[in-house]
Amino acid sequence: MSKLDRIGNCRILEEIGSGGMATIYKAVQESLGRTVAIKALKPAVAQKSHFAVRFEREALSLSALQHENIIHIYDFHRVGDELYIVMEFVEGIDLYDLLERCPVLPADVAAIIALQVARALDYAHFRGVIHRDIKPANIMISKSGGIKLMDFGIARDQSFGDLTETGTGLGTPSYMSPEQILGDKIDFRSDIFALGTVLYQMLCGRKPFIEDPNKSVMHKIRLERPIPARKLNSAIPGELERIIERCMEKRRDNRFRSTQELVAVLERFVSRTVEVNYHARLVQFLCAQNVVQENELESYLHPVLTESKRLSAMRGSGLGKFAKQEALVLAVAVFVIGMIQLSPIGTAPTMAGVTVSDSVGRVRIATKPGTAVFVDGKYVDTTPISGPLVLKTGSHRLEFRNPIFRSETRSITVERDSVATITVDLHSR
């Protein structure tokens, strides 16, 4: 394929990915002024008629699926023998790359991701579409905390005939269900098995079935049970382990009776575990992994949160121990400075005891989000903070506590009417 400059009314900006079958480009749809992604079937693949048919069917299937957790299709182009799908562009990271950065996800983060994928699958299954290739690389996490299920290239849509011959298994081996491996006719329960496998991997830091010199992955999926999730990670809640086990039952009749049932049990777990907005929780986690930069936070996450939500975010991010130990202290501090903390957006957080007549200066705090800031032993705020702290002139001791990093302290001298910036680079425990 020659270098692309345009596809229809879209101007190509850059190539952003390439696989065995297709190349992905970032482009601008000039008629609407929006950024899009263009999936181009590679010429060598397009020459094989069944791949071309699959590609066109992917566009047709996806165009009929309008759900917040499924990538949106905008257009389909055929230029000679070349085929292109114009789709939603998602600024973020796919789950495969996220697991490369952080192999074991906090339980609440993994559950939120699984819940959003399950919702996408429930919607697709109701409309007769089986994905057949659920895996981390096909799950996109946007910087705004949304989840998008991608790549319906081998999906089975009951609106069309099945291109798969009997006895042929399609999918990625590590995430395939036993019946998929055998080439049996599959249904929604194969997608449930694959999602259970992904959830296991997110929580345990490894796939449930790993090939060794004596046995293949496919053999293990068909005949062996994986190591129980809580044996690999004792921090996994028992409820999540039971969800995984039921998803990954060898006999499909023993799995969840519907995708909606899986959605319901995941919703029940997440609703009891995560008290902040689910999107906000993912944004906080992405920031901790440097996927979202601190200077981008205001674009994706409201800078002012109530203290109860901040504590919930800490508790949900694997910071439960910190939250429990500090909850009473922070609650008292919040009560004392409550009126100040609830000041309108744009006003500077200040210390209790500061009066209008006091000589004061301002201090900006730059550190990792989710860090509790204490001044002279008193809790003040949790980052990101909406403005500089207003402190009395003189010497102060600042302490920065973040449960997943080592605490740091700084001694500062505040001068009258000054504005200083304190940058604290926290280090892992």
Question: What is this entry, summarized?
Answer:
The protein is α+β, with helices and mostly antiparallel strands and 429 residues long. The protein has 14 helices and 18 strands.
Compile the SSE list and pairings.
Blueprint: E1 6-7, E2 10-18, E3 22-29, E4 34-41, H1 43-46, H2 49-63, E5 73-79, E6 82-88, E7 92-94, H3 95-101, H4 107-126, E8 129-130, E9 139-142, E10 147-149, E11 156-157, H5 178-181, H6 188-204, H7 217-223, H8 229-232, H9 238-247, H10 259-273, H11 278-288, H12 297-300, H13 307-336, H14 338-341, E12 360-366, E13 372-375, E14 378-382, E15 389-392, E16 394-401, E17 408-414, E18 419-423
Helix pairs in contact: 4-6, 4-10, 6-9, 9-10
Protein described:
The chain is α+β, with helices and mostly antiparallel strands. The chain folds into three domains: 6-88, Phosphorylase Kinase, domain 1 (2-Layer Sandwich); 92-288, Transferase(Phosphotransferase) domain 1 (Transferase(Phosphotransferase), domain 1); 307-423, no CATH class. It is 35% helix and 22% strand. It contains 14 helices and 18 strands. The protein has helices at 43-46, 49-63, 95-101, 107-126, 178-181, 188-204, 217-223, 229-232, 238-247, 259-273, 278-288, 297-300, 307-336, 338-341; strands at residues 6-7, 10-18, 22-29, 34-41, 73-79, 82-88, 92-94, 129-130, 139-142, 147-149, 156-157, 360-366, 372-375, 378-382, 389-392, 394-401, 408-414, 419-423. The strands form five sheets. It has a six-stranded antiparallel beta sheet with strand order 1-2-3-4-6-5. Helix 4 runs antiparallel to helix 6 (188-204), helix 4 runs antiparallel to helix 10 and helix 9 (238-247) packs antiparallel against helix 10 (259-273). The longest helix has 30 residues, at 307-336. It is globular, with a radius of gyration of 25 Å.
